[in-house]
Design brief:
The chain has helices at 2-13, 34-41, 46-67, 72-88, 90-97, 107-121, 126-146, 157-162, 177-194, 200-224, 239-243, 252-273, 283-289, 291-308, 317-344, and strands at residues 103-105, 166-168, 171-173. By secondary structure, it is mainly alpha-helical. The protein folds into 2 domains: 1-19 and 280-353, no CATH class; 32-276, no CATH class. Strand 2 and strand 3 form a beta hairpin. Helix 6 (107-121) packs across helix 9 (177-194). The longest helix is centred in the last third of the chain and has 28 residues, at 317-344. The radius of gyration is 20 Å and the shape is globular.
């Protein structure tokens, strides 16, 4: 959530923000200043982590609910309602980010639509789901090329909703369902595998080995510098060029890199938690327990402040980092208070936020 605030602070204030994360928004030879690039790059971890952990927590929640005797119908109904509400929150986000009458479908759309898909997919064997996710991520570039993928304005609507970013009239799809559903399925699978492994050390070891495997895949595919990069190829051997992978749409290298880094982080946090007591009021703990609440509030805080001060896209990196820290500090006590209320009312409207 902190990294996400940095990215959205950059979007609101940073005069030289880089947005070169896909073949249609990057022109070969465009300079990629390291400080600006890395400020954007570190935030790439956010969306894959949100989607992966949504799948992982979904598997853990449904396992607990089934063991408690809850009916399949009740679980399905909750999945659909939560999915629809999560996707509908894009209207709130678009209201601040987009011109009037224009709607942007991003990560909330991807998560919400994936929740609805899980009504059917959760009943399938784990092996089949892993194969499906692997097929989408490995063959996505080939299928995308066959889908009539052109410039975003020329991409068919169905292709935009499912496969590649696109724009039709006043609707912009930045996060097509299928590649992000594949990431959610990887999280779902991880959740299923973690259920019978309550030991933190065993979990940490499994997460670390998986992370190394994903990073090895990234190095191999990015090293060959051909298929698997969604057309966003390396233009040199510098670190920036190695890390300059396609998020729009997610390439195999993007997914392998970000999931690999995320799994190593999770392994570290899982192991550390066995040695360092969890601080109930800690910043990351509070924001981690109220992610949707923070997400829905931090965007208007940043956007409206930039507009009110007439500083939209006019400042440098220093102010970008400062404004990110400021919005986190501002919302921390609000999120802490809301977290307490949510814990006391787990079955009410708070389960959607």
């Amino acid at each position: 959530m902190v990294l996400m605030a940095l990215d959205h602070s950059s979007e609101s204030f940073n005069a030289h923000r880089l947005f070169t994360d896909g073949v249609f928004v990057y022109h070969p030879g465009t300079p990629l200043p390291a400080a600006q690039f890395l400020t954007r790059w570190v935030t790439h971890l956010c969306a894959p982590t949100f989607v992966f952990l949504a799948g992982c927590s979904l598997a853990l929640q449904i396992d607990r609910r089934r063991k408690a005797g809850e009916s399949a119908w009740a679980i399905d109904r909750d999945l659909v309602s939560r999915g629809v509400v999560i996707a509908a929150f894009e209207l709130w986000v678009s209201w601040f980010w987009m011109p009037p009458g224009t709607w942007l479908l991003q990560v909330l759309y991807a998560i919400g639509a994936s929740f609805v898909c899980m009504v059917v997919l959760r009943r399938l064997p784990t092996v089949l789901l892993v194969c499906f996710a692997a097929a989408v991520l490995s063959l996505g570039e080939k299928v995308t090329a066959m889908s009539g993928w052109g410039s975003p304005d020329a991409t068919p609507l169905i292709a935009s909703l499912l496969l590649v970013p696109g724009r039709r009239a006043h609707l912009i799809v930045a996060y097509p369902i299928l590649p992000w559903l594949a990431i959610l399925l990887l999280g779902w699978t991880s959740g299923r595998l973690l259920v019978p492994r309550p030991d933190a050390r065993a979990q940490s070891r499994t997460l670390a080995l998986s992370g190394v495997g994903f990073l090895a895949l990234f190095l191999a595919v990015r090293g060959v510098n051909a298929y698997g990069n969604m057309g966003l190829l390396r233009e040199g051997a510098t670190l920036v060029q190695w890390l300059h992978v396609s998020k729009y749409p997610p390439s195999l290298t993007f997914v392998a890199l970000e999931i690999g880094v995320m799994l190593l982080c999770l392994a570290t946090f899982t192991l550390a938690e066995t040695r360092i007591p969890l601080r109930e009021g800690g910043l990351l703990t509070v924001l981690g327990r109220t992610p949707m609440f923070f997400y829905l509030l931090h965007i208007p805080c940043l956007v409206l402040t930039a507009r009110a001060l007439k500083l939209e896209s006019r400042l440098g990196l220093g102010w970008t980092y400062f404004s990110a820290a400021a919005v986190v500090a501002l919302l921390y006590p609000v999120c802490r208070r809301y977290g307490r209320y949510k814990a006391a009312h787990p079955t009410g409207w708070t389960r959607y936020i």
